[in-house]
Design goal:
The complex is a heterodimer of chains A (510) and B (119). Chain A starts with 11 loop residues before the first helix and ends with a helix. Chain A is rod-shaped and about 150 Å long. Chain A contains 16 helices and eight strands. Helices cover 60% and strands 9% of the residues of chain A. The longest helix of chain A has 66 residues. Chain B has a three-stranded antiparallel β-sheet with strand order 2-1-3. The longest helix of chain B is centred in the last third of the chain and has 13 residues. Chain B is built from five helices and three strands. Chain B is elongated. Classes of the chains: A alpha+beta (510), B mainly alpha (119). The interface between A and B is large, with 89 and 61 residues.
């Protein structure tokens, strides 16, 4: 179909032929009139012949014209078809191809790949290459547009990527400094622990540092990285929740209720702390300053549900839907540029973490009138508390090894629930156990379920009679106070063993 | 990207101010010093803070504040706050340290000596 490639000037010769037609026709007419007018036969014959010739020429020309007209009609139809095709392709480029290209680039596909698969390059995937209705020029133009657009988007994306990386990088450095500082702060707190004034100031500084750390963690999460430090070992849920409390401003308003004795596996400790901290921050920020925020954790079928309830203003259904939508949006990926003020930042972080680690977060109206946020930690991220070390909370870390060395493990019952009760029988067989050693061993894992506590109590009362007389005989420092205590608790203090009975009964009574 | 040093894996996520509720000293008027002896009135209750529970367990027989702090691995101020709370809740007895101010002053002693000598 090469006529489409011919420039429009090719029509000119026909126009010339068109002008020739009237001349030939008038020539024929002149010949006819001449033949009629002339009387001599030869002249008439010649004129008639010439007229016939001219008529034949006219006829031939008319035929040629008819053919040309048909040609032209066909060409117009073909051109119209081409125009329609081009229109279609241009529309498709803007409505389908470009959005798809941008979308795929945003999802991180390499620009070259996107370009090839969408027909931006000559090759097997070239959707315009095999189309006869499109001129090569038009094809090149389409590919050019696509290539330019893809280039621009790709540049933009990589710019944003590097900006995000820069964010994360800075956040990482802040995190490292904060961690270092928190570590040193703890050492200082130990060193100056005897001076309440200095200690109080240190606590305030420590708190401030933790707040900075949370911000750095948030930036890091929004930049697509993981929050803060990593924990290689499981940490008890109680510690995780208190860790979350320690990262918000109004931690004193948070009331920590009963927590089931489970631990969270190492890799999700930090994300969970951060998630809870952001939700607690929202809860304390958007409820009246004198109200409490309730933090509880209960076991549910699918895992552990951590609930945060505040007594603030209830969310309207619309606000709740908005918040949930924000969470969902964050879960599908967020844009740093889309983030507005702080509360949105918090929810965005929560959504991102929930998506990455498989928590389920939902916001509901609370019975207290405020908002109730529930985070469900799936079963596979939960482990038994015994998997968590005694280090889970600060206390007892120093007495851990001692407890282990004094453990003869005789009670088969106690062997099962691990950490807490295993060291318990230790005082009985130990030859002359200081009561101190007893305390040191029992406090090893102190977060507790009620029933475990009850077992404590039973074991304690069983063991006590064997262990107690010795300290009484020892006449160790402060034994007089124990006698005093026995007297206070209502038992008639007979003698040294009596004192022990008294404390036993006090134990039962309590 | 470099992670923070691995030493950070140890320790606990909770900070001391959460354990003390932001306080740096006991709220009670009773002075607690390092040698103040503490003894539990009974076993810990389930709803107690783990640190308080472990102090109660440790103090089944009398223990000084300094010892509690050492065994618990907590600064003394934290222990005094916790013990102060336990005192307020009537869960422990403490033997208050002898206040130095109660010692009779020199003038009084001299007056007594004088008086005795005059007899």
């Amino acid at each position: 179909m090469e006529q489409r490639d011919i420039p429009p000037e090719t029509a000119r010769p026909e126009a010339g032929a068109g002008r020739a037609l009237p001349a030939i026709a008038s020539l024929a007419a002149v010949c006819l009139v001449g033949a009629l007018v002339s009387s001599s036969e030869p002249v008439g014959t010649v004129l008639i012949a010439a007229g016939a010739l001219c008529a034949a020429a006219v006829f031939v020309e008319a035929l040629r014209r008819g053919r040309a007209l048909a040609d032209r009609t066909a060409r117009i139809a073909a051109l119209q078809h081409t125009l329609a095709r081009q229109e279609t392709e241009a529309t498709r480029l803007s409505a389908v191809v470009l959005p798809e290209a941008i979308d795929r680039l945003r999802r991180g596909e390499p620009a070259e790949e996107v370009l090839t698969s969408l027909g931006g390059r000559a090759g097997p995937g070239n959707r315009w290459g095999s189309d006869d209705a499109l001129t090569p020029r038009f094809r090149t133009a389409l590919q050019g547009v696509l290539a330019h657009a893809v280039d621009a988007v790709d540049n933009e994306e990589s710019l944003r990527d590097s900006a995000q990386r820069a964010f994360v990088n800075v956040a990482r450095r802040v995190q490292a400094i904060v961690h270092q500082q928190a570590h040193e702060m703890r050492e200082m707190e130990d060193r100056h622990g005897r001076n309440p004034d200095v200690f109080g100031d240190l606590l305030r500084l420590d708190h401030g540092t933790a707040l900075i750390g949370r911000l750095a963690d948030s930036i890091s999460v929004l930049g697509g990285s993981r929050p803060g430090r990593q924990w290689s070992r499981a940490v008890t849920l109680y510690s995780v929740m208190r860790g979350a409390m320690s990262r918000i401003i109004d931690y004193q308003r948070v009331e920590l209720h009963s927590v089931s004795e489970v631990a969270v596996v190492g890799p999700v400790v930090e994300p969970l702390i951060h998630t809870l901290a952001e939700l607690l921050d929202n809860a304390t920020r958007y409820s009246p300053p004198h109200t409490r925020v309730h933090l509880t954790a209960v076991e549910v079928q699918s895992g552990i549900a951590v609930e945060i309830e505040d007594g603030g203003l209830s969310m309207s259904e619309e606000a709740r839907a908005r918040a949930e939508r924000m969470l969902a949006q964050a879960q599908s990926g967020i844009d740093l540029n889309d983030l507005g003020e702080t509360p949105r930042l918090g929810l965005a972080v929560v959504g991102r973490l929930a998506q990455a680690y498989g928590f389920q977060v939902s916001l509901r109206s609370s019975a207290y009138g405020g908002v109730r946020a529930v985070v469900i930690v799936p079963q596979h991220l939960i482990t038994t508390a015994s998997a968590a070390t005694g280090l889970a909370h600060g206390i007892g870390s120093s007495s851990g090894p001692r407890a282990v060395s004094a453990t003869p493990r005789e009670h088969p019952v106690d062997a099962m629930p691990a950490g807490v009760s295993v060291p318990r029988p230790a005082p009985a067989p130990a030859p002359g156990p200081m009561p101190v050693a007893d305390g040191a061993t029992t406090e090893r894992t102190a977060t507790g379920l009620p029933q475990r506590r009850r077992k404590d109590r039973l074991t304690t009362t069983e063991v006590r009679p064997a262990a107690r007389p010795q300290p009484a005989d020892d006449n160790g420092p402060g034994m007089w106070l124990e006698a005093f205590h026995s007297g206070l608790s209502g038992e008639p203090g007979k003698d040294a063993p009596g004192a022990q009975d008294a404390s036993g009964s006090a134990t039962k009574g309590a | 990207m470099k992670e923070p040093p691995s030493s950070w894996e140890d320790g606990s996520p909770e900070r001391l101010y959460v354990i003390t509720g932001g306080r740096s000293g006991p709220s009670t008027s009773v002075q607690l010093d390092l040698v103040t002896l503490v003894v539990a009135k009974g076993p810990p209750r389930p709803e107690m803070q783990p640190e308080q529970a472990s102090i109660l367990r440790m103090c089944q027989s009398p223990l000084s504040v300094a010892e509690i702090a050492a065994y618990a691995g907590l600064p003394v101020s934290v222990v005094t706050v916790l013990v102060g709370d336990l005192m307020a809740a009537q869960r422990v007895h403490v033997r208050p340290p002898i206040p130095t101010a109660k010692l009779p002053d020199l003038a009084l002693i001299e007056a007594v000596i004088d008086g005795l000598q005059k007899l």
